[in-house]
Design a protein that fits this description.
The chain is of the alpha/beta class. 23% of the residues lie in helices and 22% in strands. The protein contains twelve helices and 19 strands. The strands form four sheets. Strands 1, 2, 3, 7, 8, 9, 10 and 19 form an eight-stranded mixed β-sheet that branches. Strands 5, 11, 12, 13, 14, 17 and 18 form a seven-stranded antiparallel β-sheet that branches. β2, α1 and β3 form a beta-alpha-beta unit. The two termini are 27 Å apart. About 8% of the residues have low confidence.
Length: 502
């Protein structure tokens, strides 16, 4: 069933639902469908309509940006039915096993659940996202002198648009009530301040007094930044915001850093983009984070060749020079001042990094003084990259440059901004900067003293409030988050269905 908050009979909400799911993006739709299949009665509340509108999208507009240069927040996410699946690119890959394990050199790293807890949902996530089986995208062989790199592949969704794929099913469902244009403006707690008794919504009508949805359980699936913003705004009963007694809501926000880190000249023909990541041994040996390097080939004619290469440089000399380049940005660039190619036409390329970022409590979602149409404070974002994030980029590109030289694949030159100390990060007009993957601001942790939700995505301080989406990831890995978001939503659906049966 589909209704609109502007016109629906508010009397329909006098009855209580089993679960109120707030947000109809990939997490919310997957969770609602899973619960409905288990026989639960679900209120699926979506702040937007079936199409994008300015009034809905404006709610995502941020206030101050206090950290490194970042995108306008209202272009990162779509606020209508289907959420950001309406414009995602379809890149999918499961997290690596090491992404779930704590790294002794990375404080706050590790998940409070093992990878196997999500592995059970791979086949169903594949079906939901319409991606080929993982057996069709195995790691590819890498010729190398050590055991530094894996050459991995992404699996690509068409991409699946959740609105197109699931609207008819939800409209015909007797178990799901989808309410459009329903904006969450408050969560109400009982006298103990530990149980959510109702979620308050308003339509876009300024005169709307609002209405309350009652349920046994509530699941906030509003987005990686929006989950934190809403919890921080709900201060009518808890001054610090719901779930925030430990001060963790909003902290450890991150994105996957996406930067062009080197240019290269290639000796071998590279026909398409290649993806490389470190082995577990490499990460342990170098005390670095997980990363994905993307070798992107280009073609150029001799008259257009830039003076960036050192094609005639032997690998052993190159290795020494490359180590110096990373450690000292003011070294003599003699080896990089010329390019000699024996063939009439040369191929160049670039190296991009898309990597994990370490949990950083000082990198956070906060609230500005500016308010949206419902009186809720807008986001003040302070995204910061730590020293280990930058060092991982340098280790990644340095070692890959040695690998290219050792295997006579080509030669590369590290980007000047990465050699600077401190690094001069490119802005959004010059580079990708990030993947627009909003992660970590309501992080998962075994105990409330180090996170917002537990291993089942339940807010530690409540008995019946759960969070969905990438905001709960305690660490990020280097791959796009949609696949893991879907797995977590399926797992949460099973967990809530079991609790309802109990």
């Amino acid at each position: 069933m589909i209704a609109d908050a502007t016109t629906i009979d508010r009397g329909a909400f006098e009855q209580s639902f089993d679960v109120c799911v707030i947000g109809a993006g990939p997490a919310g739709i997957t969770l609602a469908r899973t619960l409905a299949a288990a026989g639960a009665r679900v209120a699926l509340m979506e702040a937007g309509g079936l199409e994008i509108t300015e009034e809905s999208q404006d709610v995502y507009r941020g206030g101050a940006n206090l950290g490194i240069e970042y995108f306008d927040l209202d272009i990162c996410r779509l606020r209508y039915f289907g959420g950001t699946s309406n414009h995602w690119g379809g890149w999918t890959r499961a997290l690596d096993p090491i992404d779930f394990a704590p790294k002794p050199y990375v404080p706050l790293s590790g998940w409070p659940l093992p990878q196997i807890a999500l592995d059970a949902y791979r086949a169903e996530a594949d079906s939901i996202l319409d991606v080929p089986s993982a057996t069709e995208a195995p790691d590819l062989p890498v010729r190398q002198s050590g055991y530094d790199f894996r050459r991995f592949q992404f699996r690509f969704s068409p991409p699946t648009r959740f609105a197109e794929k699931y609207l008819a099913e939800i409209e015909a469902s007797q178990a799901i009530t989808l309410v459009l244009n329903a904006n969450l403006v408050d969560l109400r707690l009982d006298d103990s301040l530990g149980t959510i008794t109702g979620a308050v919504f308003k339509s876009y009508d300024p005169a709307d007094p609002g209405f309350t949805v009652k349920a046994r359980y509530f699941a906030l699936c509003a987005g990686g930044i929006e989950n934190a913003r809403l919890l921080l705004n709900f201060t009518s009963q808890v001054p610090e915001g719901i779930g925030n007694r430990g001060g963790w809501v909003g902290r450890c926000f991150t994105d996957h850093p996406h930067f062009l880190v080197a240019e290269c000249v290639l000796r071998v023909l590279v026909r398409e983009r290649e993806f490389y990541s470190p082995t577990e041994f490499f990460m342990q040996d170098h005390s670095c984070l997980n990363f994905g390097l993307r070798l992107e080939p280009r073609w150029i004619w001799p008259k257009d060749l830039p003076t960036i290469g050192f094609e005639d440089t032997p690998p052993e000399t190159f290795n020494i020079q490359l180590e110096r380049l990373v450690r000292d940005p003011f070294v003599d660039r003699a080896l990089t001042d010329r390019l000699i190619l024996p063939q009439p036409m040369g191929q160049t390329g670039v190296i991009r990094v898309a990597q994990e970022a370490a949990p950083n409590p000082d990198s956070r979602v906060m609230l500005s003084e500016e308010r949206d149409a419902f009186g809720l404070r807008r986001v003040a974002l302070d995204w910061r990259l730590a020293e280990i994030d930058v060092e991982t980029m340098r280790i990644a590109v340095t070692t890959f440059g040695k690998h290219m030289a050792d295997q006579n694949i080509g030669r590369l030159r590290i980007a000047d901004w990465l050699l600077a100390d401190p690094p001069r990060f490119p802005g959004v007009a010059d580079d990708e900067v990030g993947g627009k993957h909003h992660i970590g601001a309501t992080r998962m942790a075994a105990e409330a003293r180090s996170g917002v939700v537990d291993a089942d995505c339940r807010v530690h301080e409540t008995t019946n409030l759960y969070l969905g989406g990438s905001s709960v990831f305690p660490t990020t890995g280097h791959c796009n988050p949609t696949y893991t978001i879907t797995q977590l939503a399926l797992r949460l659906g099973d967990h809530l269905a079991a609790r309802l049966r109990g």
